[in-house]
């Protein structure tokens, strides 16, 4: 059994490709790629005789500090590790090959990985993704980008390239799973430890936030309806 959590950021209109990568790994279109991921979702399939669980998560803005990420997104990211009990074996940090990462992302990445309360870097493989044939090799991009070099150093230089436009090439996935198993072995077959009580606390926070948002929405709708009635009443008076 392999338990995988997909993490990563967003930049302008370029999505991270986490959902597409999850679909590619599982060999099924189980994650919706037509919209941004708002909630952490877990899906499971048998892949090369292994039971593989993949958890997709909301992406944060690559250059934003954690405090600028909506609280609900933060909770959903934290909750991802509770959707693959007893805990994930690996985090795949998904980075599109076309994305140019500036030095700003260092603090943002550190900030957001602190949401997990574990040493995420020691359980992470950087997953470079491309949706079209790449004109430039990943290695040459890394050589020209100090931020990418720093990320890879934090992750023990573990990386994999996935051409998600070539869905027929399942050998890409096979090699990725082999790299994950090597990482698990090097980590002493330990998965990331997960605090169950924290999971319950997060679910309660999500319920509370959702209820408050629902109440605010109801209040806004009531105010709009009240205003609409007032405007309609004034219009009727003006016609008399």
UniProtKB/TrEMBL annotation:
Gene3D superfamilies named in the record: P-loop containing nucleotide triphosphate hydrolases
GO molecular function, one term: GTP binding
AIG1-type G domain residues: 3-200
Pfam families: AIG1
Keyword terms, alphabetized: GTP-binding, Nucleotide-binding
Family to which this protein belongs: Belongs to the TRAFAC class TrmE-Era-EngA-EngB-Septin-like GTPase superfamily. AIG1/Toc34/Toc159-like paraseptin GTPase family. IAN subfamily.
PANTHER family xrefs: GTPASE IMAP FAMILY MEMBER 4-LIKE-RELATED, GTPASE, IMAP FAMILY MEMBER-RELATED
Name of protein: AIG1-type G domain-containing protein
Species, as recorded: Poecilia latipinna
Organism taxonomic ancestry: Eukaryota, Metazoa, Chordata, Craniata, Vertebrata
